[in-house]
Structure prediction request, 233 residues.
Amino acid sequence: MKTGIDNKLALVTASTQGIGFATAKLLAEEGATVWVHGRGGDNLKHALERIRQAVPGARVNGIAADLAANGGVAHLLEQVPAVDILVNGYADTGAKMLAEVSAADWDSILHNNLATTSAISTHYLAGMLRKGWGRIVFVSSDLALRPLPYMVPYAAAKMAQLSLARGLAEMTAGLEVTVNAVMPGFTQTERTESILRSTADRHGIPFGQFMHDYFRDPACSYVAEVGHGTSLI
Prediction:
């Protein structure tokens, strides 16, 4: 099926594993040139190797940037100044019971999930508007609507992120630049399982069963395609 994103340039933040990796791989399969982002080290190297092995001829590059560190966002934007497709997969869950969350924790989680994503999105949006085409996808979470007691700040940040996505979508209404948000539920990824198991162990909460078939629904790719407009999923 023709998706119209072959030869487009895409950036997927936090894409060395989990949902971000699955999205980067799928975009590569559909012909996009993809920037795979991570903090660096072996995870980034292995992610690139896995995509190249799975997708012969894949056009993928790696960008190392710690978005939680001072200068991390600026480094990312300097190294990758413009893209056609942006998938905002970066997140800081900060899993703690609400009574344990400090003011500094709130500041950090809101900054990393909201201010950082806003800065990246508005930077690339400007270039998309100049070019007359672009796609921005926010990977939100169903926790925005159904917060858990040990992820309240994260859930609040994700709800605010939906408002950010909606505001940007209103700004670009009627244009060939679209903004969407997808809201996956809990998915079996390395990071999610580690966070939830440690929280469950710490508080004596029974650990349930994950959805095993992780993120096979190509929602991020779908809303990045040429023929699709703006809506919140």
Remarks:
- The radius of gyration is 17 Å.
- The longest helix spans residues 103-131.
- The helical segments are 18-29, 41-54, 72-79, 103-131, 152-171, 190-203, 219-224.
